[in-house]
């Protein structure tokens, strides 16, 4: 019994030791309601997300929070996000349907070897239409992204590099798919880590050449449907953050170290941020 306990402790220590340092935290636990996303503006850049790419209806039509919307394996999160596009989701006069969140941060998310983490799920209801192209979790230059409704297997979720499919998997309903873009901005390469449910990430594609670049505010967490037409699509997101290496492969908790203060998204705080404390490990402190 003692040996088992020691072995378990060593395994946990190894996981912690191999975890990276979190540079930006997109945990939806920071938000008490969908309306809290509206506290961000160009004049008031608070919270972990920019929220301006969406239709002309209230935010509650495009974003919703609930414990059932998160990956159950993400034990440090209180709730996940349901993100919606519908017939009102034209943004800025474009003939596309869009609902997208973008990191709000002063951190440099475009240098060294970084890992962009997120988990995504679709349901059987309001599922994306496989005859239409969907761009998901993409950079502005589209050097890497997920797509659905493209290629020889349009019902697959396909990982793209420079517009070319490099890996795919059938996108089954009600399954959490976990991803990390392995981006080496110095070497100009990108690889992919993936898993499902509570399974740890494994590297499914080794790093290959790519035109890697970001200004730290052009990674679009959400979905863009190329065609404007009626129909509602819901996607669910959980476990969103960016870290430097080595990669955190666990889905059960965020083992990496962090010096990030908790962003105030529900009420104003000094300099828009609040210090993390043992009593307030994840959420914003009320002021």
Automatic annotation (TrEMBL):
- What name does UniProt use for this protein? Glycoside hydrolase 131 catalytic N-terminal domain-containing protein
- The UniProt record lists the keyword Transport: no
Q: Which organism is it from?
A: Pleurotus ostreatus (strain PC15)
Keyword Repressor in record? no
Gene3D superfamilies per the UniProt record, alphabetical: 2.60.120.1160
| UniProt domain Glycoside hydrolase 131 catalytic N-terminal: residue ranges | 23-244
Q: Where on the tree of life does the source sit, at the highest rank? A: Eukaryota
Alphabetized, the UniProt keywords read:
Signal
**Taxonomically, what lineage is the organism?**
Eukaryota, Fungi, Dikarya, Basidiomycota, Agaricomycotina
Signal peptide per UniProt: 1-19
Pfam family of the protein (one): GH131_N
Fetch the InterPro entries from UniProt: GH131_N (IPR041524)
């Amino acid at each position: 019994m003692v040996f088992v306990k020691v072995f378990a402790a060593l395994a946990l220590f190894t996981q912690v030791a191999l975890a990276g340092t979190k540079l930006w935290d997109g945990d939806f636990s920071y938000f008490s309601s969908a309306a809290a996303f509206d506290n961000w503006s160009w004049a008031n850049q608070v919270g972990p997300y920019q929220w301006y790419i969406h239709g002309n209806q209230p935010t509650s039509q495009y974003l919703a929070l609930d414990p059932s919307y998160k990956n159950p394996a993400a034990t440090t999160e209180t709730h996940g996000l349901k993100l919606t596009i519908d017939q009102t989701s034209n943004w800025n006069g474009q003939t596309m349907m869009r609902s997208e969140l973008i990191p709000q941060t002063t951190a440099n998310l475009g240098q060294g070897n970084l890992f962009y983490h997120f988990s995504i799920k679709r349901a059987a209801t309001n599922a994306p239409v496989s005859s239409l192209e969907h761009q998901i979790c993409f950079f502005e230059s589209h050097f890497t992204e997920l797509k659905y409704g493209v290629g020889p297997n349009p019902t697959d979720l396909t990982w793209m590099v420079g517009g070319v499919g490099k890996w795919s998997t059938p996108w089954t309903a009600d399954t959490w798919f976990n991803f990390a873009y392995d981006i080496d901005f110095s070497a100009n390469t990108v690889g992919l880590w993936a898993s499902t449910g509570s399974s740890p990430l494994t590297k499914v594609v080794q790093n290959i050449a790519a035109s890697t670049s970001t200004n730290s505010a052009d990674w679009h967490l959400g979905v863009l449907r190329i065609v404007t037409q009626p129909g509602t699509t819901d996607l669910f997101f959980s476990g969103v953050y960016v870290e430097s290496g080595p990669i955190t492969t666990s889905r059960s908790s965020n083992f990496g170290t962090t010096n990030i203060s908790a962003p105030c998204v529900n009420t104003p705080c000094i300099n828009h941020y609040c210090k993390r404390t043992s009593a307030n490990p994840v959420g914003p402190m009320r002021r």
